[in-house]
Structures are given as C-alpha cells and as structure tokens.
Write a structure and sequence with these properties.
Order of helices and strands: HEEHHEEHEEH
Structural class: alpha+beta
Oligomer: single chain
Largest sheet: 3 strands, mixed
Length: 171
C-alpha cells in the first residue's frame, strides 16, 4: 500500500480514535499567552480600580483550603462537591482533607472570620481575583473568578451598595 501525503491514513473500525494533542499540560488546563495576558490584566486592572475606588481592598487567599470549609455549612451543592479536587495533606502522622479552591467566596469568608478573630473590623469590604479549580469532563478546569464581598452590613443596604458597584464596573 502506498501512502498519499495529502490524505489522512485510514483506521480500522476497531482502532481507538487518536488522543487529542494537548501538548504537555493536563486536560482542562491551558496556557495564557502574551496577547491574552495583556487583555486579562487590563480587565483585572479595570475591576480592581473600580472596586478600590468604592473602598474595597484586595485580598489573596491560599489555593489550598480545608475541605470542611466547603462541607460544614453546605456552601457547595453535592453536585459541586463531586467536582472538587481534594486530597490528603499528609504531615507524616495524620492528615487533613484539603481541596484546590473551588470557589473564592468561601475562602474570602474564611479570611474575614480569621481577621475578625484577630481584632479586625466588624465590617469589611474585600475584593479578589483568583483562580478556582473544578473538575470538568469537557472545558476548563481552572477558571478565574473576580468578586467582592461586603461583610458586616445589613442585607438590603449591602445589596444596594453591591448593585451600584456592579453597574459602575460595567460602564
């Protein structure tokens, strides 16, 4: 049989389809090149400038958090919990079940509790831009989440402030 370089070779009906060429990275993970990175940073700057102008301060939380933060209060649905990346953080004697942060809001709430316990203000306006990790058969498994949290204000008052802030950012 001679090969024609202009046509793909034919597979037998029982052969497995070829694996997609992902390069050297894991499924659902992707690189961000310089052009896309410039666009990402421009949106990130616009977001952080808008929220800082309204009195929100940026925080950064760890990528790895204790699993119980997401299970104890029922903050994630059972379907969402099935999609977290969890593993045992082993210290040689025992271990704690941890997750790659599946949602930034819970981590920000944990930060607020820790800060309040350390004598921080009872009201906090915080903002974040952080990657979150969720298992997906198809699509991205690492996505970026930006958000704001307003802790310690009455619900109606806080909702009005956040809606105004959202409208300001979108303009």
């Amino acid at each position: 049989m001679t090969a024609n370089p202009t046509t793909a070779p034919q597979r037998a009906a029982t052969e497995e389809p070829p694996m997609p060429d992902r390069g050297l990275h894991s499924p659902g993970m992707r690189d961000v090149g310089p052009g896309e990175m410039r666009r990402f940073r421009a949106v990130e700057r616009r977001f952080l400038d808008a929220v800082e102008g309204a009195g929100y301060l940026e925080i950064r939380t760890p990528t790895i958090e204790p699993l119980h933060l997401y299970t104890a209060a029922g903050t994630l649905s059972p379907q969402a919990l099935e999609r977290v990346y969890s593993f045992l953080d082993w210290d040689g004697w025992s271990g704690e079940r941890v997750v790659l942060r599946p949602d930034a809001t819970v981590a920000a709430a944990r930060w607020y509790v820790d800060a309040a316990r350390a004598g921080g203000s009872s009201t906090a306006r915080v903002a974040y831009v952080a990657p979150v990790y969720r298992f997906a058969v198809d699509g991205d498994r690492e996505v970026w989440q930006c958000g704001v949290e307003l802790f310690g204000r009455a619900a109606a008052e806080g909702d009005a402030e956040l809606l105004t802030l959202g409208a300001t950012f979108l303009r």
